[in-house]
Amino acid sequence: MPSDNDDHPLNVQAAVLGLIVPGLGQISLGHAKRGLLAMAGVLGLFMGGLLVGGIDCVDRREDRLWFYLQACAGPVAFAADWANEAYVRSGAAGELVATPPATTIDRGPEPKVSTLKGITYANELGTLYCALAGLLNVVVVLDALTRLPRELEEPTR
C-alpha cells in the first residue's frame, strides 16, 4: 500500500469514465473486481429504487433537487427521467386525470396527472434510493480519481 505522502497524479480520465458508467473508472485502471462490485452496488441501488418507487421517482421537473443527486448515478438517471416524461407524464402508459383544485380561485385549466403516478411512501423511498445511488457513485468516482493503476501498485503479501 502506498503511503499518504506519495505524490501521484489524479486519474481524471478514470473519473470521467466512472461518471459515464459507475465502476468503469476502476476497471480502466486494472481493478476489474473492484469496478464490477462498484457497478453492481450503484446500479443495483438505483434499479432497486425504481422497483420500489416506480419510474416516476426520477423526475427532473417536479423533484429538481433530488434529480441533481440522482443524476450523479450516470446516464441511467437521465434514461429514467426520459421514460417518466415519455410514458407516465404524457399519459401514454396510464390515463391522465384532473387533480382537485388547491383553492377555489380559478387559475386556468386544471392540471392533469397520470393514474400511474406514485404518491405514497414507496415513491419517496424510491426517490431516496436513487439519490443514494448517485451519492454512492460520487464516492466511487473519487476512488477512481485517486487510485493508482494496477501496474503501479506495490505487491501485497
Name its key features:
single chain, two-stranded antiparallel sheet, 157 residues, 4% strand, elongated
Structure description:
The chain is mostly helical and 157 residues long. It has one domain. It is built from 6 helices and 2 strands, in the order αααααββα. Strands 1-2 form a two-stranded antiparallel sheet. Helix 1 (12-20) runs antiparallel to helix 6 (121-146), helix 3 runs antiparallel to helix 6 (121-146) and helix 4 (64-71) packs parallel to helix 6 (121-146). The radius of gyration is 20 Å and the shape is elongated.
Distance between the termini: 11 Å
Q: Strand portion, in percent?
A: under 5%
* Count, helices: 6
Structural classification: mainly alpha
Question: Residue-averaged pLDDT, rounded?
Answer: 85
In terms of quaternary structure, the protein is: single chain
Contiguous runs where pLDDT drops below 50 for at least 5 residues: none
Total number of domains: 1
Number of strands: 2
Succession of helices and strands: HHHHHEEH
- Largest sheet, spatial ordering of strands: 1-2
Radius of gyration: 20 Å
The profile of the biggest β sheet is: 2 strands, antiparallel
Q: Helical content, roughly?
A: 40-55%
Instruction: State the shape.
Output: elongated
Quick synopsis:
With 157 residues, the chain is mainly alpha-helical.
Topology summary:
Layout lengths: L11 H9 L3 H5 L3 H22 L10 H8 L3 H15 L6 E3 L13 E3 L6 H26 L11
